[in-house]
């Protein structure tokens, strides 16, 4: 992208229109860059998102837990409702809230070393960020029940077999493949892609 710059500062992303000669006026090319594709991934190869921060959750009372879940639902629904296509590049553990976040994305790609699951039951809780609704829509009720009730994570190859992920790539190739797919999507007519 030439006209849009994205910089990250912790949990904040700054999108900057980069057309100083035109006083950052929004032309068709710039508007088109704004409505392309978003890839969600985690830093490193060990974890995409290992789930909700249990350390933070351990000290919450019932009201605090409800507020925590409400924040997660707002964030996940915002991701789910984006008008641009979203790709989860699952580069390691996607457990609990991590898998639930990946389920908000339109397409899920996984590294060979990735493991996905809903282990909440092993902690005495249930998936609280929408996984009980989104997971059955993706893999069907039976596989969703298996993942939720056993709490046992599955490898990327099994996630592919049950259609939880669209493709599995060697760990070192995951982001290249995600970028390649995003490029293919971004190369299509934006209005058709949104529709």
Can you describe what's shown?
The chain is α/β, with parallel strands linked by helices. Helix content is 42%, strand content 21%. It is built from nine helices and ten strands. The strands form three sheets. It has a four-stranded parallel beta sheet with strand order 3-5-7-10, sandwiched between helices. A hairpin with a 2-residue loop joins strand 1 and strand 2 (12-17). Helix 4 packs across helix 5 and helix 5 packs across helix 6 (141-150). The chain is globular, with a radius of gyration of 18 Å. The protein starts with a strand and ends with a helix. The model has no long low-confidence stretch (mean pLDDT 88).
Mean pLDDT: 88
Beta-strand content bin: 15-25%
Structural class from helices and strands?
alpha/beta
- Our Rg estimate from Cα atoms comes to 18 Å
What's the main sheet like?
4 strands, parallel
- Order of neighbouring strands in the sheet with most strands: 3-5-7-10
Percentage of residues in helical conformation: 40-55%
N-to-C order of helices and strands: EEHEEHHEEHEEHHEHEHH
Enumerate how many helices there are, as a single number. Answer: 9
Please mark out the parts with pLDDT under 50 across 5 or more consecutive residues, or reply none: none
Q: What global shape is seen?
A: globular
Tally of strands: 10
Measure the end-to-end span.
22 Å
Layout of helices and strands, plus pairs?
Blueprint: E1 4-9, E2 12-17, H1 28-34, E3 38-41, E4 47-49, H2 54-58, H3 62-80, E5 86-90, E6 93-95, H4 97-103, E7 107-111, E8 115-117, H5 131-139, H6 141-150, E9 154-155, H7 156-161, E10 167-169, H8 174-186, H9 190-194
Helix pairs in contact: 4-5, 5-6
